[in-house]
Write a structure and sequence with these properties.
Length: about 140
């Protein structure tokens, strides 16, 4: 049980999604062309363990666990698009590369459906859960 009176939110595996490879490519290209310090995100649970192992924890420190509710689904896709657009312009990318990346963004963020049991559900708000791009786009969004 996750928490009493709070059901576990569904986990979405995006690996079988039609835009999965495009999302991975988008993430790689953006990281190369407009790098972020990744101060708010971790790559995976192993990354968390590695960072904690390399951190000196003094006796007066307190460790906390934050439960962020609906982080990705609360990010407005159109506003995040504008932020990504401004970021690629600031990084002096040529117009053709800018447009290509923004087209990829649109394809990835419009694919917001998933299955649960035998039902096809549509996520109506925010960034898709489970996509490789959501943490990166949220980093851009919260950076501004």
């Amino acid at each position: 049980m996750h928490k009493p009176e709070h059901p576990i939110r569904p986990l979405v595996n995006w690996r079988g999604a039609p835009a999965y490879k495009l999302a991975r490519l988008f993430t790689q290209k953006i990281k190369q062309l407009a790098p972020l310090p990744n101060i708010h995100n971790v790559d995976n649970p192993k990354d968390v363990i590695k960072k904690l192992n390399n951190t000196t924890i003094l006796p007066h420190f307190t460790l906390d666990s934050l439960d962020i509710t609906n982080r990705y689904t609360s990010i407005p896709v159109a506003e995040a698009h504008n932020i990504v657009s401004n970021t690629v312009k600031e990084n002096l990318l040529d117009p053709q590369t800018q447009q290509e990346l923004l087209n990829w963004y649109d394809v990835i963020t419009q694919q917001n459906y998933f299955t649960n049991s035998d039902d096809i559900l549509i996520q109506r708000n925010g960034l898709a859960m489970g996509t490789p791009t959501s943490s990166l786009i949220s980093e851009f969004f919260y950076k501004t």
